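Before relying on records like the one below, remember that each one covers exactly one chain. Contacts with other chains, cofactors or solvent are not represented anywhere in the record.
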Amino acid sequence: MWFKLSCLRRLWPALLLSPLILSLLLSPDLNREVFLAVHQGARMVPAVCWRLLNVLGDWPTVLALLLALSWRRPDKLPALLFGCGVGVFLAIVLKAGFAVPRPPLVLPPGAVQLLDDLPGNGSFPSGHAMASATLASFLYYSGMARKGLWLSAGVVLVMCARLATGVHWPLDVTVGALLGWAAMYGACRWAWPQGWPAGLSARLQSLMLPAVGLQLLWLLYKPGSHEEYGLRLAVCALVFVAGCWRWWRARLR
């Protein structure tokens, strides 16, 4: 019984998402109907709320947040690097391989109210759902957040935001969330669970900081057209400034 309960505690995201994914795979009409129901129902919420929620699934923003979280748990840096690396790789390969058209390109004109720019890549799987699940899984399996229910609610909100925005199907977000969870769960469990030497982790964290700086420069060079741009810019700037401060203090010691 202890073994079964421990497995349930560790694997419940997969146990919840797998039946839903199977149902959507077996019934394309259900995939379409769920999208239309969520997309139309989401119109009751201001569009700015959905766009701001999308920031929690934006890969550059999530990677900056994960870098900042690794400062608290440097022993989890291997999990961060491998989990995110696998997640980004899967998102790129699967999107290119399946090349699923996004809802506005398939549904009749007027059925979809786009709340943001339409991405030019494939729809399946959702990179935003994957990134948000990766962030939530890192928080949970690294022990920095014990409230798995609240973390899961945050991922579900990002999933709904992608449907509300009009750029993803339900199957995209459910598979994306499952892949993001699996990538980070496996990384936290098997990728050097005891961590790397402190000196190596500190050097790698310092090397990751310029990437945040480049992202900040890119945001300043190419400002967005919607409200979430300010949130993405603020998160990136805060992480970069905090990282530079940590690096300077370490140099003075």
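The two ends are 51 Å apart (CA to CA).
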